[in-house]
Amino acid sequence: MGERLDADRRLVRTLQRLRARYGTGPLRLRLLLRRVVLVLSHEDAHRVLDASPDPYATAARAKKAALGRFEPHGVLISDAADRPDRRRWNEVVLDTSAPLHHLAGPMVAVVREEADALLAEVAGGDGVLDWPRFVASWFRIARRVTLGDAARDDTVLTDQLARLRGQARSGRSARRCVTRSSAGCVPTSSGPSRAAWPPAPPAARRPRTRPRWSRFRSGCSPSTLRGSRASARSPC
Fold first, then answer.
1. With a threshold of 0.70, does the pTM exceed it?
2. Which of 72, 78, 173, 224 is packed most tightly, with the most Cβ within 10 A?
């Protein structure tokens, strides 16, 4: 949807107009129920990033409301005490200090294989590379790089993860629950409320991602990102 609306280009143009009108300094804005400060220069952006998480915390209320339900130990929502150790672990797994990741070779090989398969699919069809085809190929690459070749076609796993992320993002939505049914909470548009929407699904209906994740023991191979994670801190 964002691509169809050209949202990135519109946002960049809006920021450029604001900078041309108000200068390069931080710009305070009042948006409905909250206030924000826009950083409009690369110098200020570097200053904010270099001084996080204290005093510029990345654990904003909206981020914690969403990520706290999906990845509660993520670096972005970690406090000053936990963040250094978690960030070091991320940097080990991602080879931040190296010019190339140590898995760059296998990753590039996977990308080339999937790109060739995608082009062959397009050429054998209507000749159009559309978004559904591209994103399907993208997630095949992501599953292979992260979990190994055995996960290539497990679309159920990535669909479950996408659903969980969607539920996490929606957990802070301003909706009011006026009645309940087998479908859950029915919202009204009569104003903001602190009630989470949608409600957390019952345990029996929650996607069982962990058992599916654990199916891919080949993902513990040192040629996958999951294997790098295991060698950095914890077992697969």
1. no
2. 224
